[in-house]
Amino acid sequence: MEESGRKKIIRTLIVDDSSDFLEVEKGFLSMEPHIEIIGEALTGTQSIEMTLKLKPDLVLMDLALPDISGIEATKKIKEIENPPCVVILTLYDNPEYKSLAEKSGADGFVTKSEFATKLIKVINSLFYNKKREIKEKEQIKMKNILVADDSATMRKMIMACLKQIKGAKFVEVSNGLEAIEQIAIKEIDLVTLDLNMPDIHGLEVLNFIRKHDKFKNIPVVVITTKKDDTSRKAALNLGATVYITKPFKPEELLSSVEKILEEKACLKMPEEQNG
Hints:
The chain has helices spanning about 20-30, 45-55, 70-80, 95-105, 115-125, 130-140, 150-160, 175-185, 200-210, 230-240, 250-275; strands spanning about 5, 5-10, 10-15, 35-40, 60, 85-90, 110, 145-150, 170-175, 190-195, 220-225, 240-245. By secondary structure, the chain is an alpha/beta fold. The chain has a 5-stranded parallel beta sheet, sandwiched between helices. The chain has a 5-stranded parallel beta sheet with strand order 9-8-10-11-12, sandwiched between helices. The two termini are about 20 Å apart.
C-alpha cells in the first residue's frame, strides 16, 4: 500500500453480481481518499482471477454470486500466498452466514443495510490498527529461530510445529556449544532450548544469553522432559521466557512462540520510530 498523507492507500477489488450496486459502491468509496478501486468482478471465479492478477489489499465480496458463492471464493482467495483482507458485503443479516464467513477466513462482515454507516469503520479497523501494522511488517521479515536439542527427531517436531509462522527460518544445533556459537554469529530472533544436552547444560546456555548485552533480549523457550519445580524455577529465574515440558502440545508451542514474536515486534516499534 502507498502512503496518502498519513493514511496508506488501500487497493480494493469490489465483487458483486449487480452492476447497479457496483456503481453505488464505487461512488461511495470514491469519497474516501485512502481507498482506490483497482477492479470489479461480477462472479466468484472472476474475483479469484483478479485477485491473483491485481494483488489487492482488500476484497469486498458479495455472498450471492452466479457461479460460486462468496464464501467459496473467499476460501480460495485466502489460500493465496499473502492474501488480501476480505470483507463480506451482503443483503443477508444471518448468524449462520456470519459463522460461515468467519470460517472461510473473511476478515469482516457488513450487511448492505449497514453499508453507509459501518463499512468504512470496518475497513479502517483492519488497516489502521497498530497491532495489525506491526504484525504485517514483522511477517515480511525473516525470523531466525534457533532450535537447540540433542534429538534430531525432537528438532524436526519443533520445526514442523513452528513452520506455520510466516518468515520462519530455522537454525538447528545438537548441543550447547553449537547453540552459543550460532547465537554469537547470527541474528537470532528466538531460541527453543533443551536442558539436557551432551556438553553444556541448557541452563548454562541460557545464562550465557542473559549475561551478554547483545543477546540478553532474545526470547528463550525452554522445552524439556524435566517436570520438577526445581528445574522450572531455575530456568525461569535465569530468564527463560516460557517453560514447556515434553511431550508438548503443538498448538501450545505455536501459540506461545507467535505471542512472544508479536510482543517483541511491539517493543521494536518505538525504537524504529525514534531511529
